[in-house]
Amino acid sequence: MLQKKIPLAIVLVFGIISAIQYFVPHPLSQEYYDTMLKWMIGVGSMAVFLALVSFLRHHYVRLKVKEHAPYSAVAILSFLFMTLVGFIGGMGPGSIFQKMFYYVQAPLQATMFSLLSYYMASASYRAFRAKSFEATLLLITAFLVMFSVTTFGNYVPGIPKTLEWIMAVPNMASKRGIAIGVSLGSIATSLKIIFGIERNWLGG
Amino acid sequence: MRAFFIKLANLNRTIIYLIITLGVITPLVVPLNLGQKMSPPTENLYTYIDTLPKGSHILISADYDPSTLPELQPMLEAIIKHAIIRGVIPMVMSLYPEGTGLGIQACEKAKEELGARPDTDYVVLGYKPGFSAVILGIGEDIKKVFPTNYSGVPLDSIPAMKGVKNYKDIALTVSLSGASTPLAWVTYAYTKYNEKLATGVTAVSAADFYPYLQTGQFVGALMGMKGAAEYEYQVNKLLEKNGFEKGKSVFAVRGMEANSIAHFLIMLFIIIGNLGYFLSKKRREA
Questions:
Q1: Contact A202, A4 (CB under 8 A)
Q2: Into how many domains does chain A fold?
Q3: d(CA A8, CA B213)
Q4: Residue A61 placed within a domain
Q5: Handedness of CA A104, A109, A114, A115 (dihedral sign)
Q6: Nearest-5° angle of CA B228, CA B230, CA B233?
Q7: What parts of chain A have a pLDDT lower than 50?
Q8: In a domain, A25, yes or no
Q9: A96 lies in which domain range?
Q10: Residues of B in contact with A47 (CB under 8 A)
Q11: Residue A84 lies in a domain
């Protein structure tokens, strides 16, 4: 029972104080704010540590499943290797840790993301069809945006201005609507968390 | 002819992949030298940094990991070089652990190519966990968030950090990101501390940031590979003018040429796909 009541009480008290603090320019309020910032950074650091423990636990469990075992073994070994290399050789310029990052991790991650272009090309070929009025409108807009973001688009009169208009008028109107909706949702969710109505963060 | 287009519309995906590969590789091997024209968001950022007084400080947050490196790393390198050439001091930090290594790499390049001196012409602050708390903390006292630079040297003893306490002493903060991190900078640094902000983002997320450009919450922005190429091209001209031929980079400019060809091919595929669709539809109706 207390396992839930104590965190709820902490959130209620600090949520209300922090909201009031924002509008109070008193030195005491400023001191509270500074202390909270230090705590937030400290808790953030602890969260990184927790994430590492969670990562190891997750993959340790998967090691027992034959299908996942090779991948989890690679994940755990890579983690241990990078940790050891970092502790022994340091992380400064020219270190093995840095070389592993620049020449292994960076190209691997960049390659994975770059593969998207192939899927994009294949999907656009098969799925981007003018099947209805709305689909045609989307197709024409996508066509104009795609052309204007190429270097060739710069040299066709009117194209850069068309891109700016699409981005600054219809795109912005919809984005702003979404942003306002999300913000109102965030405020409502924050209030629900502070007053203990929303308790999913406690684990259900 | 109709049969040909219908057949073409059902092309094997291996052939599509092969065409895209050739389209991407060719401009990287044989440069097209198309040149770059600055779009308004790029020009605004370039002009803002270009007109800062010498000795000003800018904070650059490399809020990305290597997956978005091809688009964002050239932005980081070009902004750092631009600032250093103009006598503006870039302070490079990251809200992502992997961003630290990428920030160091960009600074090392500036050191090698422009002869920039660490802790005098630029400062590497590194990574600090805490996200919003880090952004807010810099607004109070940067030395409380980053007591030392990445190498462990106390900020108080670093010449380039003299007189820098919080956002009031930082002329501009640039967040480079492949996600929505720049919006956190708007929420915490702009709204609470009135910090001038700019951003560099991947092309897929560029549309999300236009509302913040229109309101002036971002003074400028680099939108995807196009923004990176435009900025890089302009910085190259500046480097050439100042006799730093060695510092010139064509990573983004070449990348943008490859990108343009890939886009062009995708547009062509869409046309062929639609032609095949309409012709086969007509055949079914007939």
A1: yes
A2: 2
A3: 39
A4: yes
A5: positive
A6: 105
A7: none
A8: yes
A9: 91-127
A10: 129
A11: yes
